[in-house]
Amino acid sequence: MTKKKTTSFKKYIRWFWGIVLGGVLSLILFFMLASWGVFGALPTFEELENPESDLATEVISSDGKTLGTYAIQNRKPIKFKDLPDNLINALIATEDERFYEHSGIDFKGTARAVVKMGKGGGASTITQQLAKNLFTKRASGNALKRIVQKAKEWVVSIKLERQYTKNEIITMYLNTQGFLFNASGIRSASRIYFGKEPKELKIEESAILVAMLKNPRQYNPNRAVSKKKSLIRRNVVFAQMAKNGFITDQVKDSLQKLPLKINFTPESHSDGYATYFREYLRDYLKKWVKVNPKPNGEQYDIYRDGLKVYVTIDSRMQKYAEEAVTEHMSNLQDYFFTEQKKNETAPFYDLEEEQIEAIYKRAMRNTDRWRGLKKSGASEKEIEASFKKKTNMRIFSWKGDIDTIMTPLDSIKYFKHFLHSGLLSMEPQTGHIKAWVGGINNKHFKYDHVEQGKRQVGSTFKPFVYATAINQIKLSPCDEYPISLYTIPQGKYGIPKAWTPKNSGDNPLRYKGVLSLKQALANSVNTVSARLIDMVGPQNVIRLAKASGVKSRIPTGPSIALGSVELSLYEMVSAYGMFANKGLRVEPMIITRIEDKNGTVLTQFTPKTEEVMSEESAYVVIDLLKGVTTGGSGIRLRTTSERPGYVTGYPYGFQNPIAGKTGTTQNHTDGWFMGVVPNLATGVWTGGDDRATHFEKIGKGQGASMSLPTWAIFMRKCYEDPTLNISKEDFEKPEKEISIRLDCNEAKKPLEDKEDKKPEIKKGDIDF
Q1: Is 308 helix (H, G, I), strand (E, B) or coil?
Q2: Coil, helix or strand for 739?
Q3: How far apart are CA 494 and CA 538, in angstroms?
């Protein structure tokens, strides 16, 4: 009996070990089959070396700051050396305590997870999670399929451990993690949740990000429903760090008492700085990739290939420019809103009811709503009716977006009340664009008033008339001319009728006496500009303007002397930069170089230059323009009066040499200011969407009120930042002696025959 029991026991023992051994062998066979690709292809050696991952193209400013990205996923890879120790320690303590001890699989952790049925924590190592991020992408909901996926992840984990160092695995893992809110990878997460680079993260900030690794939605610090869980999970990270010896219990206790704090800085295209510039750059890059293929002939994908685009924009100056536009335009808009309350046809002047209706109808047709309904087959009557039905919407205000209920047509009428502005700043010597503000808010107003918009430039075009006269017939700023009415007869220059421009204002003495050219330009005297263009001819002025950087068509009539030319701010700043650069035009540049994801330079950009006028003539024009800011329409730059209740006042008090010119078009529709110091040329335009949208009177509608303040605020901010080195010095004189008289206190030449003497300019005489 005992013998039979012993035999039976041995039989059970054999069965037990047979099952165990069979299970182990089956497990080994299962993983061997997985490694051989029986359950699906595994990544090749090349794929392990270069795992597929969508990398954002990064736009990097001249001072090394990321301005934005173009991406499917906003992923900006980072190197291990740029990760702070507190982040690495928090990661290892929380996600994989034995990371530096295992070879991809933590068998101890796996056994614990099996015994405790997962209640004692997961068993996935950092390497396994990386394998999942890279090659599994999404876990299957089917249990059997998930087991197969898990086996493949184990195999890939071991391969990754053989292929990469531990530090490289940590870096790859953090680069592939998602954190919601367009934050793909640790660098994007650091910038979006804390507004800083990972290297700058504090330990409590690193802990918040590590806490999110378990579930970025459930433990997200920016979601109201998950903030409490985020705080609890962050404190678990501190506890794990203390448990693993990275911090003391005392430090842990003090850290756990800290409130949950983030600095949420979203990074969509409509957020951040230089939004209008980035849209212009995107269009440029789409063209660039077509003519700059990869070595294998394929086209670069700006959303996936991780290009690095180094641009000329300075992030500090861009910030100051956007702040300046906001400060002035928000104030100016208040005055405009107040004025429009008394305007029966607000926000328009001098329009009949049918003309206003046509504007609104045209605006409706330009909306996505109209195009979408048209595409879906709706009739025009149905579409128009939809614009009169109230709906939920978010509208712009200078105090922040407003959620409201209104009809789409009413929203169009509301938005038509807003004044718009553009600012462009360029370094004349290099052509580098340093700041680009295309409008007041890219999210609500997409139209770029720097490069897309072309408006009449008013008196800001007059310097090209004066420059032509100075460059060709050596007129002096001190030369005097009558300010009486001047007529160019019918037929001359092809004009259909005689042209007799008037000076602005209603002073009866505005046509009496004489003025020097310096005084005439400073005060924008139209009759003197008419005399000058008749002396040199419109075609010669056009040639100078074109050589200076104007690309748009310029009418051939003499009225261009008063600014009846539609140009972009981009063209104007480019042209004014030539005067500051001693007559040498440098074509504007926005990019210095483009690199691939590995840092290989694909294209290096160099400036293109062209001599437009003599150094002496350029210096004389600058001397003329300096007169505008010392005794003309730009004198506000010199005063310190706050002038409460009057737009932005004149609290600027600049004392350094500034060459500038204001410009105001008919009915004060457009207000311009162009201002130049030795190493920076900056232009500002301000106006309504429609030409009938403007201030009723010139006091607030002139360039000196609408645009000069933005320029002044911007420059003041730049001067307050000594790291920018914006010049306060005078413009450099030519080395050779200047042959043109600049000191108007010297003995004056008699005025005789000035009114009748109009030198003939032949084509061969043009030297630019």
Answers
A1: strand
A2: coil
A3: 11
The one-letter amino acid code at 526 reads: N
Residue 85 structure tokens:
């120790």
| DSSP label of 689 | S
Return the pLDDT at 747. 45
The residues of the chain scoring below 50 in pLDDT are 30, 34, 36, 38-39, 42, 45, 47-48, 113-121, 140, 146, 747-768
Quick: pLDDT tens for 120-147: 445 689 888 888 877 665 554 555 554 5
Residues contacting 177, CB < 8 A, separation 6+? 133, 184, 185, 186, 189, 213, 216
Q: Output phi, psi for 455, to 5 deg.
A: -135, 160
CB contact burial 167-193 (16+ within 10 A = b; e otherwise): eebbbbbbbbbbbbbbbbbbbbbbbbb
What are the phi and psi torsion angles at 518 (to 5°)?
-65, -45
Determine how many CB atoms are found less than 10 A away from the CB of residue 59: 25
The DSSP bridge partners found for residue 604 are 593
Q: How many CB atoms lie within 10 A of CB 690?
A: 17
* pLDDT reported for residue 444: 93
The C-alpha angle with vertex 147 and arms to 146 and 153, in degrees rounded to 5, equals 85
User: What DSSP string describes 457-526?
Assistant: -GGGGHHHHHHHHHHHH---TT-EEE-S---BPTTGGG-SS-B----SS--GGGGSSEEEHHHHHHTT-H
CA distance 470 to 754: 15
Q: Quick check: bond before 198 cis, omega within 30? A: no
CA–CA separation, 662 and 458 (whole Å):
8
- Residue type present at position 73: Q
Q: Give the other-Cβ count within 10 Å of 591's Cβ.
A: 20
Tokens (6 digits) for 703: 């360039």
SS3 585: strand
Q: How far apart are CA 86 and CA 205, in angstroms?
A: 9
Give the β-pairing of 480-482 and 514-516.
antiparallel
Q: Give residue 493's pLDDT.
A: 94
CA gap 530, 489 in Å, rounded? 12
**Crossing angle between the packed helical segments 353-365 and 368-375, to the nearest 10 degrees:** 70
Radius of gyration of the chain (CA): 35
The length of the chain is 768
* CA neighbor of 711 nearest in space, from 677, 744, 667, 688: 677
Three-class secondary structure of residue 173 per DSSP: helix
Q: Which residues of 235-266 are buried (b: 16+ CB within 10 A; e: fewer)?
A: bbbbbbbbeeebbeeeebeebbeeeeebeeee
Distance CA 670, CA 694 (A): 8
